[in-house]
Amino acid sequence: MARIVVVGLGSMGLGMARVLVGAGHEVFGQDISAERLDAFLASGGKAVPDNRADAAPDVIVCVVLNAQQTEEVLFDPESGWAGHMAPGSVIVSCATVPPGFACEMEDRATRAGLLYLDAPISGGAAKAAKGALSVMASGSEAAFAKAAGVLDAVAETVHNLGPKAGMGSAMKSVNQLLAGVHIAAMGEALALAVSQNLDLRQVVEVVSASAGTSWMFENRAPHVLDGDYTPRSSVSIWPKDLGIVSDIAGGAGLPVPMARAALEQFKAAAMAGDAQADDAAVTRVYARAAGLSLPGEG
Amino acid sequence: MARIVVVGLGSMGLGMARVLVGAGHEVFGQDISAERLDAFLASGGKAVPDNRADAAPDVIVCVVLNAQQTEEVLFDPESGWAGHMAPGSVIVSCATVPPGFACEMEDRATRAGLLYLDAPISGGAAKAAKGALSVMASGSEAAFAKAAGVLDAVAETVHNLGPKAGMGSAMKSVNQLLAGVHIAAMGEALALAVSQNLDLRQVVEVVSASAGTSWMFENRAPHVLDGDYTPRSSVSIWPKDLGIVSDIAGGAGLPVPMARAALEQFKAAAMAGDAQADDAAVTRVYARAAGLSLPGEG
Predict the structure, then answer these.
(1) Which pLDDT tens digit goes with each residue over A130-183?
(2) Which of A158, A196, A246 to mutate to test the interface with B (most CBs of B within 10 A)?
(3) What are the tens digits of pLDDT across the range B17-40?
(4) For residue B197, which phi and psi values (nearest 5 degrees)?
(5) Do B151 and B10 share a structural domain?
(6) Out of A182, A203, A206, whose CB is closest to B214?
(7) Which ipTM did the prediction report?
């Protein structure tokens, strides 16, 4: 049984924290939202003690939104966890961040006597709740070993991508490039189908059985069919994640026109007021542009 | 047993023609390439008789490249088949064409006393050879009925998309939008992975099991891994098919930035000399731009 702090109790972090409780660990949850923390406390979790040193965590699992929040959680001079962790304990960092940032965090952790695992996650809230995530991880053997109990509990598959931080985040960016492009393409294709007077349910059925299908098409197109944009994963993720793709590609001199076209569509969706809607709402950007009517609207 | 003429004995048409022979039909093959025709004759097919009226086909299956070739095959004043078909026989048109063109062909066929099935196909050469294609078909009940023997033989799934030509072609365009975008995204993602020093085999393994996967990624990425650009489906398909997407979307006032970005990448691949290479060669456009080395090259 390990002592674990999970920072960030959104749909992914909350599921992971609950799975860790279920696996018999002592789990402290932390979130800026009192509501989210209460949800975790109601399912057997603990709040972080006033004196952080009392938590004495073996593992910090950091499931926040981005690089800036990750840095604050770990190394803020006042609130950062690094100062309260025993030497040899491990940071498991799950946010999607630039590979270079992950390397920098690993360096700082090493200088503080801590282990660091670059460990972006994939699979969505439903898999997080079942302990069935995919983890794209890189880091030292010692970091993998120290994090093994956590990884066993939260993941169905752990991809070991190498002995240094950065490779996990690079793999996640490759995945996000594809995932983001596929969602935007799904929206574009459904809008084209509406413009050609095709029956959308039949389109989803035919495409799902054809060479044009993708994991994202099969997962997100039903949201459009149902006119249900309750956020499972929100539009706001994509300007951030595709921004990272664009930045690291730019640093390598690689043009990424597909990722950039998708980025523009998600930005347009956010600017139109759908930042917190399900990312399938990118379809509305197309529908508005061409005056098309989607299911459940107009 | 029907008398069938298959026009266009490329990788799709040849497979379909052979399957029809295997199903016991009398099948006449036609192609501008003597080599392709010989391949068909060697597998039990017949050549079109000098006097076309002697073929007296119940069905013409037209598996040519585009709208222009389709129109010539059917309605050319000298060589078109329409003048040699008995009233009530059926044209099964499989090329990817604009929906409006399919409607026009149906009108002309109707005026000539013929039936017309708008019947684009999907599945590739391997499925064509096994009689396991998907057909996205629309047309009159009478056209479906007259074509039933052919459809039974060549297809695993026949999607009936409505009683008028045009819907089949519209569905095909929606599928091609997705398929083309997914291939370009595959190339972009693999190039990004190379630029980040990821192991490409591991990338294909991880992505194939993650939310970033697509049918095209899983089908085409191995060609890049193997450095094998032997054409199963060539780059040259995509400027044509994504051009149709762009045209019909434009006609509906719908911006299609994803399709247009992919179109540009395939045009760049064709201009760089890869028009007849496998469409996975779009990855080379990215690699060249960033000076990256792909498997089997450099």
Answers:
(1) 999 999 999 999 999 999 999 999 999 999 999 999 999 999 999 999 999 999
(2) A196
(3) 999 999 999 999 999 999 999 999
(4) 60, 25
(5) yes
(6) A182
(7) 0.96
A77-109 residue pLDDT tens: 989 999 999 999 999 999 999 999 999 999 999
> Residue A222 and residue B174: Cα distance in Å, rounded?
16
Q: Please report, for the domain that includes residue A215, its CATH number.
A: 1.10.1040.10
Please write down the HEC assignment for all residues of A139-171: ECHHHHHHHHHHHHHHEEEEEECCCCCCHHHHH
- DSSP calls for B109-141: HHHTT-EEEE--EESHHHHHHHT-EEEEEEE-H
DSSP states along B214-277: BHHHHHHHHHHHTT----SSBTTHHHHHHHHHHHHHHHTT---HHHHHHHHHHHHHIIIIITTS
Query: Considering A164, A199, A215, which residue would you say is the last residue of a domain?
Result: A164
pTM of the model: 0.96
Assigned domain for A298 exists: no
Please tell me whether residues B132 and B118 are part of one structural domain: yes
**Which CATH number is A111's domain given?**
3.40.50.720
As a whole number of angstroms, the distance between CA A87 and CA A183 comes to 43
For position B298, what pLDDT does the model report?
A: 60
Overall domain count for chain B: 2
**Do residues A187 and A283 make contact, with C-beta atoms less than 8 angstroms apart?**
yes
Nearest to B191 among A254, A260, A264 (CB): A254
Residue of chain A whose alpha carbon sits nearest to that of B184: A258
pLDDT score for B263: 98
